[in-house]
Amino acid sequence: MSDSATPATPVTFPPAFLWGAATSAYQIEGAVREDGRTPSIWDTFSHTPGKTAGGDTGDVAVDHYHRYRDDVALMADLNLQAYRFSVSWSRVQPTGRGPAVQRGLDFYRRLVDELLEKGIKPAVTLYHWDLPQELEDAGGWPERDTAYRFAEYAQIVGEALGDRVETWMTLNEPWCAAFLGYASGVHAPGRTEPAAALKAAHHLNLAHGLGTKALRTVMPARNQISLSLNTSVVRPLNPGSPADLVAARKIDDLSGGIFHGPILHGAYPETLLEATSSVTDWSCIQDGDLDTIHQPIDALGLNYYTPTLVSAADPDDKGPRADGHGASEHSPWPAADDVAFHQSPGDQTEMGWSVDPTGLHELIMRYHREAPGLPLYITENGAAYDDKPDADGRVHDPERVSYLHGHLSAVRRAIADGADVRGYFLWSLMDNFEWAYGYEKRFGAVYVDYASQKRTPKSSALWYAKAAKAGELPDPEGV
């Protein structure tokens, strides 16, 4: 069936396509001081005045640590076939070193057992930005040792869960961890050191390679290992302008090539190394690193929200940087002060991000060409809107339904064009702590009343449940 059909005509997916939803530990778990857990960089950052909207923290979040059984039952009610969650490193290994705290691991054992009992496939992400604070105190990701500590942690979790969890992701969005955490400072640990951010990116790559090797030593060969990248879909403002094309290439290297270059191809792009030579000499790359990073992976996760529109900067334009990654006087793009960012056309979400499903299709087809034969998963895709219950307590979110219909249609079109996309994880299962935005931005398909912790499926959750059950996209007007 053609994806160009009218919205009322269902768009059908392959029978084996996996329908899931995703969350991350610090955004939902709460219980930050229970069962041996110690602070992560996000505990420290969120408790630092002025770093998060309203001074919000993840201390309670949506209390998933205590409510996980109800949350898994809700997932089953919504026909989810898979659930992607992250493990809190400081809950498992409080100092980032040494033996595991079994009480911490037991939570994830119980969660996995509950998922399997409900017929939901667990997908584990080992790192979603919550580095143990003690490792940051020792230098964090700009220090090479952190990558080796990650490998030890990966082995611990792999030994504990690898017999029952077949789908593994080492890192989520290492770009955010490196550049929002160490260059612009809008994410934890809040540092603004461009050279350190580039070192952090390399050590995150190294951690992925070392972690992949560690997982393979302790898990069954059937298990799939991947990672999730949020490579920008970068478009030049004027495709006919050589200067704009150079700007687009620079941002593409800094968002994508810096990770997929060594991971997929065993080398950093020469254009990246040249463009950033004023910031670093890349002496952090040691002999053997690229071979370690270039481990075979079983799939690749892609996270997509909105495209990136750039041009060569006008030296006279001193306006704010419209790259969608938070307000900071410090850029998350090292050595890219000669690049200007522009608002992409179209409707916008509450994040100010343009709604453009063609970017998701473009991203998928790019990696279909970049890594032929490698299965792809959409590991995050979703939108924040100003959701509110009506007088009857229902939460109607037609904008999100439209967003999901458009982006899932783009996924189906990419499959029709030959891309091997195996599944889709909606971001997010439920409203939660949205990092520096605190509780102001709601990405969930399930509404959470933060005072009572009551969960209410929104219209988008009900629509997505129908899609997951039928394997096709129902009319977005029919919820």
UniProtKB/TrEMBL annotation:
EC number: 3.2.1.21
Class of the enzyme per the UniProt entry, highest EC level: hydrolase
InterPro entries xref list: GH, GH_1_N_CS, Glyco_hydro_1, Glyco_hydro_1_AS, Glyco_hydro_1_beta-glucosidase
Reaction catalysis annotation: Hydrolysis of terminal, non-reducing beta-D-glucosyl residues with release of beta-D-glucose
Family: Belongs to the glycosyl hydrolase 1 family.
Biased composition (Basic and acidic residues): 315-328
Any one GO molecular function term: beta-glucosidase activity
Alphabetical list of Pfam families matching this protein: Glyco_hydro_1 (PF00232)
PROSITE patterns: GLYCOSYL_HYDROL_F1_1, GLYCOSYL_HYDROL_F1_2
Entry keywords, A to Z: Carbohydrate metabolism, Cellulose degradation, Glycosidase, Hydrolase, Polysaccharide degradation
Organism: Streptomyces thermodiastaticus
Record-annotated active site: E380
Protein name (Swiss-Prot/TrEMBL): Beta-glucosidase
Region ranges (Disordered): 311-351
